[in-house]
Amino acid sequence: MSRPLTLCLALVFSLPFAVAPVSAQEDPNEILDPVHLSALSYRNVGPHRGGRVTAVAGVPENPYLFYMGSTGGGVFKTEDAGNTWTNISDGQMAVASIGAIAVAPSDANVLYVGTGSAEPRGNTSPGRGMYRSTDAGKTWDFIGLPDAGQIGRVVVHPDDPDVAYVAALGSLFGRNDERGVYRTRDGGTTWENLLFVNDSTGVVDLAMDPSNPRILFATAWRAQRLPWTMISGSAEGGIYRSKDGGETWQQLRAGLPAGLVGKAGVTVSPANPDRVWAVIEAEGEAGGVYRSDNGGDSWRQLTGDRQLWHRPWYYNRITADPQDENTVYINNVLFYRSVDGGTAWQPIPTVPHPDSHALWINPLNTDIMIEGDDGGGTVTLNGGRSWSTQRNQATAELYRVTVDDQFPYRLYGSQQDNSTVSVPSRVSGAMISDFEHEYQVGGCESGHIAVDPRDPNIVYAGCFGGSISRYDVRTGQTREILAYPQNQLAQRIGDLRYRFQWNAPIRISPHDPDVLYHTSNHVHRSRNGGQSWEVISPDLTTDNPDHQGFAGGPITSDGTGVEVYGTIFAFEESPDEPGVLWAGSDDGRIHVSRDGGDNWTDVTPSDFPEGATVNSIDISRHGSGRVHVAAYKYRQGDFRPYLYRTDDYGASWQLLTNGGNGIPADHFTRVVREDPVRQGLLFAGTEFGMYVSVDGGAQWQSLQRNLPVTPVTDLQIHQGDLILSTQGRSFWIMDDLTPLRAVTEEIAQAPASLHAVRPAYRAFFGGPGLGALGATTRATNPPDGAWFHYSLGEDVEGPVELVVTDAAGDTAVTLSSESQAGPDLGAFAALAAMFGFGGGPPLLPKTAGTHRAVWGLTYPAPTLPAGTIIFGTLGQPPAPPGQYAVSLSVEGEVVGSESFEVRPDPRVPTPVADYVAQHRFLEDLGGIIDRLSDQTGDLMSARAQVEALTGLTDEAGLSEDDQAQVQAAADSLTGKLTGLQEEI
């Protein structure tokens, strides 16, 4: 017989989850009471290699304190010179894209943050205005300019922390009036537009004369992103100067480029305020580095070296050394420094990542700097000889997420400005470590990834220009298998035979793993793992020649492949119907083939927004012809969410978003997935977070939980988990969707109910462990064991219990809402207490809602004989694989029971019979130890009785001789009892 277990160190609980009546909610779309969604949470699994940073700042008086702004991850702070970083904006800012950070020179507790990165690559996120902190980033207040778009610089008055100037580029995706130079004189309560050029030209950079804060320089720039091009430059662009604190402005022309001017950066030398530098995008040979030695009255070109203003819309930042008037830095593909006033330049090769964007130099010690680039933020304390690591920032921008069928499963994605990456969902160790468990899988920064279902070591990974690689994880061998060998870069798009997007889909057929699909403006298929390819579709785009010129202009072309347009951007084959193929284009067309690609039908919804990008297609497991589509059009100024569903192969469609049914009207959508288990349970990833619907998309509500505000780029539902990729905060997993799958109106109204239990695995991965203490670049495992979920309709006063029984009906564990004793840890009790282990398990909640408890698949440890000292603990025997049942009782009444399976670790070839034999042996051994413990207790009790009796000899009136005889007999008996105890 098994002994009832009243403790389990691996017991974990979370807060309630339940359904509440709509009338009880402030938002009528919240079918699920958000207070009770606390049972669900996200778990970050890395990678911890940094993503793009375009804003940095520091505090002169504190050489180890710095701030950085991620383009999709928010604001981070370090107090140890970059050894560790902590996010300080989560939960307080409505947007994760950061364009500028400024620390008030007269009060280091006052910070200003402008949102919206002004280095606008093709996937740039929009900004949402300005924020201010008066306590060094602990708390933040929104202070206005919500439509300022991308904010390139904030400058604070040297003596008054309430006076600040903002360079507002404006909307990157269309015309608007909230752009130019803004000033606040009351800490952001009110703003004045001091310099407005026009509704398409904003300001990207600002510099203040450190000796005279009334003198300001601003660089005006016309910038607009369209899916097929990047517009940079106009006749109104260039450098403007104010000498009266921004009240009036003069466009500077003497010695500067005439005609079209694009992006420019400007800086004033604190060591000599008459010296001003600029790096300017201009036509022909006019672009380059310029300097004025008379405060901007006249300028001369120092160099036109293209390396210093390459891809100017993405770089063109310049910073003067605070102490040396001849030293100046430029951020570009490389990080450059000049020590002769700006004529000759040399790269600083020690910076850990290329694509440099931002720099702050400590004015008290110019060896101390923070630089921001496409790999994150990095700090130097020795003038650039060495830099802090960027492998401690989970800010990766990931385009998509793919999963495999390993145990445990792994996640795959391509990280912008880095490489492909694979990380595990969990590991057999203390924590998930990038250095131990992460690896690359071929391809490059931009592509889709597909994993061979027969062998997860074979990975197909994409790259821009139509490239695909077949990568073998075991050997590291890479073989190029691209569908058509044509250079796609720096070409006129209309001249390309096949137009492959930067992020072109790659799929393995769910019916034949040798069949691969890759898409350009056509669908390409290989039947032999990529050795040869065939085209199986016509052009499935609008094929608009107006969108097929050279990307970039009117000054600088850009040929990286990001702007290749008129392509198939989403593609899927039905997992249930071989040959049913769906394709969605980035210019607004949806097609379906029901005969393996022989024939295609345009099924674009009649109300589909013209030119919208079809970003994801999800084929339902709940009926033939049922498909969900997510699309966006924000790059053309339309920020509305677009989610559609068809139940008849596209013959008719229903729009599932209207701006008023839960997903806000400006939260554009990137992905939608339907749960394969529960029909109508939908998950949507948007620019600003996660949403869920339990009624097929009629109503939506936030599922943000503990997920930081960040663009959600892709979703997968795998093995009962929800898996996310983000554009700025790496990968996340919501473990076990049972609560969302189980909730119904009947359950919500029932007094109590127990939900189905997914299979558990006898695989002990391990908790944090002592080796994980202080870890900053590691991700956590989920708790081991069987996860139980139960619902209570209202608070209860009596006990709540979960009783687990094995196949024989013997009790394996009783989890209770009442206090329970912890195990006897012997000599290790003090050490366990020091690290928060030991003691009784958490109590089952008795409040209304749905709750989660995790049984660690262990039986009770035997009782340690009293007085015994062992090095370690007796441990808790693991449960063998097999069938189990769990029952829920509330206030003494059993209200539900569910069976579940404990499965063996699929990685371990141990027969189930051996697990059972081990368990029986440990049970027998535990029984022996229990009996010995009982016997020891009996001996100790007898010895105590003898000692008590000898203390009564005085009261009995015995003579001294009689007392001596009694004591001698007692000593003899006690000695024998002690000897027996020691023998046991």
Which quaternary structure do these chains form? single chain
CATH architecture of one domain: 7 Propeller
Structural class: mainly beta
Cα shape = globular
User: What helical percentage do the residues reach?
Assistant: under 10%
Q: What's the total number of strands? A: 67
Largest sheet: 6 strands, mixed
Distance between the termini: 24 Å
Describe the structure concisely for a colleague:
The protein has 984 residues and is mainly beta.
Structure description:
The chain has about 1000 residues and is mainly beta. It is about 10% helix and about 35% strand. It contains six helices and 67 strands. Strands 15, 16, 17, 18, 19 and 43 form a six-stranded mixed sheet that branches. Strands 60-67-66-63-64 form a five-stranded mixed sheet, with no helix packed on it. A hairpin with a 7-residue loop joins strand 18 and strand 19. It is globular. About 50% of the residues are buried.
Summary tags:
984 residues, mainly beta, Immunoglobulin-like, Methylamine Dehydrogenase, Chain H, six-stranded mixed β-sheet, five-stranded mixed β-sheet, 67 strands, globular, disordered N terminus
List the topology elements.
Blueprint: E1 12-14, E2 42-46, E3 53-59, E4 62-70, E5 74-78, E6 86-87, E7 98-103, E8 111-115, E9 130-133, E10 141-144, E11 150-156, E12 164-170, E13 180-184, E14 192-195, E15 201-208, E16 216-226, E17 229-232, E18 238-242, E19 250-251, E20 261-268, E21 276-282, E22 288-292, E23 300-303, E24 317-320, E25 328-331, E26 335-338, E27 346-347, E28 356-361, E29 369-373, E30 376-380, E31 402-403, E32 410-414, E33 420-424, E34 432-433, H1 434-437, E35 449-451, E36 458-463, E37 467-472, E38 478-480, E39 506-508, E40 516-519, E41 523-526, E42 534-535, E43 553-554, E44 568-573, E45 581-585, E46 590-593, E47 601-602, E48 613-619, E49 627-633, E50 638-646, E51 654-655, E52 669-674, E53 682-686, E54 689-693, E55 701-702, E56 712-718, E57 721-726, E58 731-734, H2 738-742, H3 745-749, E59 752-754, E60 760-762, E61 778-779, E62 786-792, E63 800-806, E64 811-816, H4 829-834, E65 849-855, E66 882-890, E67 893-904, H5 912-950, H6 960-983
Parallel strand pairs: 17-43, 60-67
Antiparallel strand pairs: 1-65, 2-58, 3-4, 4-5, 5-6, 7-8, 8-9, 9-10, 11-12, 12-13, 13-14, 15-16, 16-17, 16-18, 18-19, 20-21, 21-22, 22-23, 24-25, 25-26, 26-27, 28-29, 29-30, 31-32, 32-33, 34-61, 35-36, 36-37, 37-38, 39-40, 40-41, 41-42, 44-45, 45-46, 46-47, 48-49, 49-50, 50-51, 52-53, 53-54, ...
Helix pairs in contact: 5-6
